[in-house]
Amino acid sequence: MNGYTQEGQLHSNHNGLATVSQRKYSTFDGVRFSPDFCVSPDGSTCYFLDQSSFKFIVVDLTANLSPYPCNIPPFEKIKGSKIWHSLHCVQRKERTYILALLEEVQTNKIFLATIQADIYAEKLTVVYERYLGQRAMFQLSGADIQEPRIGHIFCIVYWQDAKKTYCHMFKIKIGTRGNIYPNAYGTNIAVDGCWFQPVITKKSTVVFLSHPSYSIDCWLLKLKINQFFRWKHTIEKVPAAPSREGGAVIPGGWLDNTYSLSFSRPRLEDDYAVYYVYDFDNYKGHIWAIDTNRNLIKTVPVDFDGHDVQGRDAQVQKLANDTLYVHGFCSRPSCEEAAHLHRIYLLPI
Question: Where are the domains of the chain?
């Protein structure tokens, strides 16, 4: 697993958003067969899901050691074919668990599983499987595990029909032995319009983006739960901010629909929803940060030196120490590694 680091001069702009002439980051070889991954909370180990060989590829990010494969362990409750929607790592005492959000294909049931990772024995073990009590009513548009605050874990799944967006949301507690204790935070929530890539804030508000193909302007849908456990929502416009700091693109009129963009799942940094955004027209990747309180979009400039992670398969994870990980396939056809894991050092925004 090869890695290298680039650094830039740090400074802050007048809006309080940390920017750099060249963001400090490290790059490692990725797994070319699958973009799905998660990182241990201490940042020492990365677990890549290689569905083509039914294995996890385990990589030590602290030393120049060779990665090793671990077979995907058998499941007892989840039968037959399954869709792996999202991965997330948690630490409980001295145990590391991989959380996997899965869909059982034959029933469309949504499960959460905990997989214990023993890096010393180079072994993975499924320790708990929990049906979350809901099925995917249509083909899911997205499903994600998020931890906006340490210990506050949520699962969200959403889908669309011609007129509405629907979602289920669960709050999750993970015990010291990997036990899963789910609480249905909201089920069959329905709102008009096409919304995607939600982020869960520290106040447990769910913030969706309007899809660029459905709206010229950029809007945020904010779902909030009241004291009676009823959901209400507001729709708020993001002002156009046609700045191009560091060569990155900020949407003015949501790019006037002239750019072909792909958005990763978001991760929360303070009150900012952080997205990896890939521009297919210019073969460039950008980091966007949307202030979920003030509805402002900023860029976090970073130069990937021509090895930008491309397109719709890019995956992101973020640790509590302001470190963002982006993994996916390289946009450069001649790249020998074919896939990269970028570790980007964010400053508090």
Answer: 35-191
